[in-house]
Specification:
single chain; five-stranded mixed beta sheet
């Protein structure tokens, strides 16, 4: 156990399914499992927290079992709800709703997915989840198994990057992101 809170976020691996997966509950492919195991080689944590989606939770449970770590699912770290765009490919959306998609890429706070979760709501639950981790595990090293959108939002919240750059931050499948290496702000910017 560490003397201070330390958290790393791991994006789930490949599911082999195209499109915006959001709240869909897809399993990992063999490639996805390999990506995640490769990312955690020679790493050590005290606790694992995971999105309850199986593309995150199945790996988190196996890792926890292998290393005898506690594992806690937390809905707050689920991916953005893409509403009517769930399961749709970007190519399909670009053909059917080019302006809506362009607006979302340019400013997701102002233009959320139709019938989807607003970025303000997404940001509120991620902030609450992160604050809860800090309070619940103040002297622990935490692995958070989550999604690309969650990690992109963390990057924005913890570095103060411009809102328009949110989707520019690269988060490949099976990538590990040390959250504490970003500037943690006393008051996380909106």
């Amino acid at each position: 156990m560490t003397s201070t809170f330390y958290c790393q976020a791991l994006r789930h691996g490949d599911t082999g399914l195209p499109g915006l997966r959001g709240r869909l509950d897809d399993p990992l492919t063999p490639l996805g499992w390999n990506q995640m195991w490769a990312a955690v080689e020679a790493q050590a944590w005290d606790v694992v927290v995971t999105s309850p989606r199986q593309r995150c939770a199945a790996f988190a449970r196996e890792l926890s079992d292998k290393h005898h770590l506690p594992c806690y699912p937390d809905e707050r770290f689920s991916e953005l709800d893409f509403g009517l765009w769930e399961g749709r490919t970007l190519d399909n959306l670009a053909q059917e709703s080019p302006q809506d998609l362009e607006n979302f890429w340019r400013n997701p706070w102002r233009y959320p997915p139709p019938a989807g979760e607003s970025m303000d709501s997404f940001s509120t639950r991620i902030r609450a989840g992160y604050g809860s981790l800090q309070q619940r595990f103040p002297k622990s090293t935490v692995l958070l198994v989550t999604h690309g959108g969650v990690i992109r939002l963390f990057h924005h919240l913890l570095t103060g990057s411009p809102r328009g750059n949110l989707l520019d931050f690269s988060v490949p499948h099976g990538s590990l992101h040390p959250l504490n290496d970003w500037t943690i702000r006393e008051s996380i910017p909106s």
